[in-house]
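Researcher: Please generate the 3D structure of the following complex. Treat every line as part of one assembly.
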Amino acid sequence: MTLLLKQFFNFITLLHSENGTKQIAWGLTLGAFLGFSPFFSLQTFLIFLILLIFTVQIGAAFLSAFVFKFIAFLIDPIADILGRAILENESLRPLWTHLYNIPILPYTRFNNSIVMGSFVFALIISPLLYFGFNKAIEKYRSTLVQKIEKTKFWKAFKATKFYIWYSKYQDLAGQ
Amino acid sequence: MSTDSNNNQTTNSSSTIQKTKTKKTQGLIRWNALMPISIVLTLIVFYFILFFDSHIRSAIEWAGYKVLGTEVNIQKFESSFINGNVSIKKVQITNAEQPHLNTIEIGAIRFDINWDAILRLKFVVEEMAAENIQFLSKRSYPGKVAPPEPVDNKPSLTSQLQEKALDKITTQNKENILGDLSSFLKTGDYKAQLNDMDSKLKSKILANELKAKWDAKQQEWDSKIKNLPKDSDFKNYKLKFEAIKYKDFKSPQELESSIKQFNDLKKEIESKVKTVDETKKQFVSDLEQIKKDYESLDKQVKDDIVNIKNHLKIPKINAGQIAKSIFMDYLNPYIAKLEKINDLAQKYLPPKYSKLVNDKINPDKILSGQKKERNPTPTDTIQPHPREKGTTYEYPISKGYPLFWIQKINISTQSTEQADYGNIKGQILNIVSNQRQIGKQTELHISGNIPKQNIDGLKLDSYLNNLGDEPEASIEFKIANYKLPSTDLLKNDDGSISIPSSDVSIYANAKTTAFKIYTIALKNDFKNAKFEVSAKEKLVDELLKNSFAQLQTFDLNAQAQGSLSNLNVNVNSSLGQKLETALTASVQKKIDDLNLEIKNKIDVEINKTKSDLEKQISNLTKGYLNNASDSEKKLTAQKNIADEKINQSKKDIENKAKNKLKEEGQKTLDDLKKKFGF
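Model: Done. Output below.
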């Protein structure tokens, strides 16, 4: 429960910040890849590296990974079917054999049907996710943010010590 | 007013600065994160440059100590990730028995790392060089040796072999050829000793018991024979039978009376038959028992002879026994080394092979790769549905490596003016974690000379083959010539036999299948042997000196075969043969005389009882049993007569009745004929 609340507050904070929409959208999209990939795999490491090197919203990525992990769990059967279809494709067999014999690549576990299916699924939906998140964030900021800020709840929340502390932190961090 | 405006301007400018601050844009690259990453990477690089080699050196020394139980020292460890090579200088492994020496010292070990394998998390070395090897080199300080492991109940290979070779006599009671010889020759008159043993002879005691027992039985038999029916009894029966009417009966009552008399007589005979039958069974049972008692007496006599010989310490002048008692101590170090190698192999082989040695574990289960079954933890909470595992596809591996593989180690060492390393060349091939993956066995080949140790013509070949269903390991070891240092073959209070110097050639061969069945052979040829013999007893001393004087060459052969728990060990030597010949000439006559005296002593005491028993057996077989059988036959014949008479009587009256009926019928017919006028 604590974890869920923490993720929720992080998300709210991000949306109400003045960070670039693209960074958030990229974070959310890369988080989807994280959610669909096994934790101990090469692609997870690469995504962490991307998150570290490029100015992508890390919080958004983790939040998104958390959510997409559950989605991945639900679509496992579909991913399995998709993965098997790809890995059993005769025309692609030489490619997979070659990749299997390259050092390091086997650590992506691409030869597992669910890993392959989940990755391909994430790849397919990633453009949709990116643009969708972009649009959603803009819409949210232009419409809902003001409404929420007018609510009594928000006013009460702003008066809490937690928010005061957070504002101070943001000022000090220069955000 | 101006102050207020100034204040307002200040406030405005600070808020502008703040806004500027809040509105700072970020580029594509997260530079503020890359800095700490660079610092961390730099630190890691510095670690590898400055500390990695020394840490690896310490780790190898620690691991070596744990594995071998003795201190391992490495002078220098150098590695280069860029060039992909490793160099280890001056590796010293302490000798457990002599901590101030090294078992082996390797001047340098060099090899290149295969990066292709490393990227696949495999360790593969194509070629490794080991140079400047020395054996038993001096250390600068005594090395650490781990304390021995606690003793367990399981007998060591050494003690098992020793027990087997010495015919299960424990170390305390180990056969002492010198001691036995000394005692035997020292003691002149054995008659007094034999007389002392007289009352303790078990065979004599048994003989007396048996005599008493069967004498009592004899009386019983005699009384039983008296109760058997005699000829007069049979005559009486005959007369009684003849007295009873069996034909020409006038009435059925007469018949009935005769039958009754016959039956009464028959019953009497039957009761006699029963008595005779019981007597006969008793005789048969006694006959079996007396034969058994005779055999047990015979066996006891043999046991007593052996006990007397042991008590009088008559030495076994037998080549095999001599070889065993002399050479077992010489062979023990070889056996101990083999046991140590076996322990190391069992401990550090891949688990599925080392566990084969343990009988309690099911080898089929291990080799089939079944994982350990974990006990499921019982729980009442709701368990989430486990994540799907999917299907994992294995593609053909065109470039695969086993987890650990050293393809070739070249060993070379050459003596120099500074140090005598020995002149050795060799190769170790395919030290690998999975032989089946590469299809090759592990091999070791070494040859050369070690002048410092006086070893010429050294050749060592060893194989470890895990390719089949069961692992096979073999080792073949040869030394063409080795100057054996002073060696004690036999040393105890009664004397000693030692070889101060000799040249020996050694051939040893050991093989095991699945670490269960072992075949070990050792052959030593001794040349130019100079013996030093001495014995406390003067006569024995002279005997030994004369025997060994002309002896300069001999051989020693030892074989052991079977499982560790049931090794069949055989030791023989031409030295034993030669000693047997020499000792036989001197002491064999005395031994033969003594053996004869023991035999005579026993015979005098026991033979009488034995002949009495034989007589009783004969009496029982030919006398008593025959008598009983005869009586039984006669009684049965009498019984048959009774039956015959009864039948005859019955037939007689039947015939008479028939005739009477016939007559009456005829008469009635005649009357009828008359009546009707025919």
